[in-house]
Specification:
The chain is built from eleven helices and 21 strands. It is of the alpha+beta class. The strands form three sheets. The protein has an eight-stranded mixed sheet, covered by helices on one side. It has a seven-stranded mixed sheet with strand order 2-3-4-1-13-15-14, sandwiched between helices. The radius of gyration is 26 Å and the shape is elongated.
Length: about 425
């Protein structure tokens, strides 16, 4: 796996965008698709995919940040026909930043922003199509203008197998760009191709979290070193994210993180996500420990025996299956699942298992309760009888949707 992976922040369209891009470019495919529950953005879809053999990452994390042309992707095409085909697909519903046509530097070129907000530089360049097929391109504009050369040299000092390969300044007659500003430069980080340029034009944008660079670290020592070198804004440090002194966003991550946050056991996975959300620089040892931490419900169940204990375990697992993103805790001295508010409670009584899904859930499924004893907000399941698994599952899913809808409505009111 490559050391540095471009990461794209979408509102809700990460899956749709990744499928679209994979349909356009050769040697492209979606590698994995996961749902990460319990984040500040809610349930977050995370994707890993390849475009022209280059790894990418993306997630749907809400409307807080968007890609912009400060980071684009330059695609070297083997033919003019390929440039035109990609231009037609990517420009549909988007906008041209530089018109499709012939330029001094390229016989067929266009800079286009697609309908998802991602920017592409399409160029006929068969000589670079083999080894520089798709390259992240950094535009140093606004407050970062004239910093391209400094940034490349700095980044090359942080990562092994790195260096500046080519620089082309604007030269005279390119106002408002100074003669020594970089019109184009290519460089390598950890053996991977990148490009950079300066622009003194008033673009109205700069680097944001909309596109970041993920760095996978193989040890805590490496993570500490890279984090210490890159981070320049303490206020931007959160969950492994940082901003460097040029404003570019990075995610400095232990390579093991993907396995921890996508493991099948929802309880262990949620513990890792919860621990990660409280960190700035990620601590892989602390994340490993977090997945092993006991839930307070474990102690509650351990204090029971026989059928009571068996039914407690059964209903707990059933709730987990139907609300895997929910957090376990003790509330009102009862085992409780929490998802944007208390979801359901359950408790061991002397002769029955009490289940408390809220009056609204009982009312919604009253016709399916049959002989099950109930009162306002509570159901009674005798220990010696099988649990009504289907009804419980329906109520848990109902409550999850009810809580999520209420949380969204509360955000809209704000």
């Amino acid at each position: 796996m490559e050391k540095i992976v471009p990461h794209i922040w979408f509102d809700t369209q990460a899956g749709e965008a990744a499928e679209f891009y994979c349909s356009l470019f050769p040697d492209s495919r979606i590698l994995r698709r996961d749902l990460i529950p319990g984040t500040p953005s809610g349930d977050m879809e995370m994707l890993s995919f390849e475009l022209c053999g280059r790894p990418f990452s993306a997630f749907s994390a809400g409307p807080y940040f968007k890609p912009n042309p400060s980071v684009s992707f330059t695609v070297s095409c083997e033919s003019i026909q390929e440039v035109d085909r990609l231009w037609e697909a990517l420009s549909k519903g988007g906008r041209e930043l530089m018109a499709l046509g012939e330029y001094d530097f390229c016989p067929r070129y266009s800079w286009v922003e697609d309908r998802f907000g991602l920017s592409w530089q399409l160029m006929y360049s068969p000589e670079t199509a083999a080894n520089r097929r798709m390259v992240p391109s950094l535009l140093f504009a606004g407050r970062a203008c004239e910093k391209a050369r400094e940034a490349m040299e700095f980044y090359a000092s942080v990562f092994p197998d790195s260096g500046v390969d080519f620089q082309a300044p604007y030269g005279p007659g390119a106002a408002p760009n100074a003669e020594d500003f970089l019109m184009y430069a290519s460089f390598r980080l950890a053996g991977q191709a990148f490009s950079a340029m300066d622009s003194a034009l008033d673009h109205g944008f700069g680097f944001t979290e909309g596109i970041s660079l993920m760095v996978y670290c193989d040890s805590s020592q490496e993570l500490d070193r890279i984090w210490g070198a890159l981070s320049a804004d303490p206020e931007a440090e959160q969950c492994g994210w940082l901003k460097d002194r040029f404003g570019l966003s990075w995610q400095v991550l232990p390579r093991e993180l993907d396995a921890l946050t996508t493991q099948e056991d929802p309880v262990r996975r949620n513990r890792v996500v919860k621990a990660m959300l409280g960190m700035k620089k990620l601590d892989i040892d602390a994340l490993r420990r977090a997945q092993e931490e006991a839930s307070p419900i474990d102690d509650y169940i351990a204090g029971r025996s026989g059928l009571a204990r068996a039914r407690l375990e059964e209903i707990r697992n059933l709730i987990r299956e139907n609300a895997p993103e929910a957090e376990e805790k003790i509330s009102y001295q009862m085992p409780t699942f929490y998802l944007a508010g208390n979801l359901v409670h359950f408790a061991a009584q002397s002769r029955h298992l009490g289940f408390y899904p809220s009056p609204s859930a009982i009312e919604a499924f009253k016709a399916e309760l049959g002989s099950i004893g109930y009162s306002k907000g509570a159901l009674r399941f005798p220990y010696e009888e099988p649990l009504p698994r289907e009804v419980i599952a329906k109520m848990v899913r109902f409550r999850a949707e009810e809580n999520k809808a209420a949380a969204k409505k509360k955000v809209r009111r704000k």
